[in-house]
Write a structure and sequence with these properties.
Layout (H helix, E strand, L loop, with lengths): L18 H21 L22 E5 L5 E3 L2 E3 L2 H14 L4 E6 L5 H13 L4 E5 L4
Parallel strand pairs: 1-4, 4-5
Antiparallel strand pairs: 1-2, 2-3
Amino acid sequence: MAFKPQGEESEAMSEINVTPLVDVMLVLVIILLVTAPLVTQSVHMKLPETVETTQDIDKQPFQLAIDAQSQITLNKEPYANLPDLEAKLKTELANNPSMEVHLHADQTVVYGKVAELMATVQHAGIVKMAFVSTEQ
């Protein structure tokens, strides 16, 4: 605590001495300015060039969708009932054992309908299924 000189009333000063704080902050800024260029250095190297690849068309996942009216489509082909869809999925699975299905479901569809659709895909023997969501 700092006190006033002897001639005046001896009471504690209420101001905080910020000089040491400013000194420490200036030292930290200097350290930052010195070390920043050292951290941002990069190593220049020549990387090998490659040819652009595309995904095999035969391996494209099947697009299974259910819209707001509960209409089911597989690759934009409509299916009236789930047994027909299951039969189609089984035949496609026989042709391609590593078949994948992407499920697009409208947000207004009742969850029970989506669960039935998922169960149909599982009964067909397909183990790779992904949910696709889109931002609106």
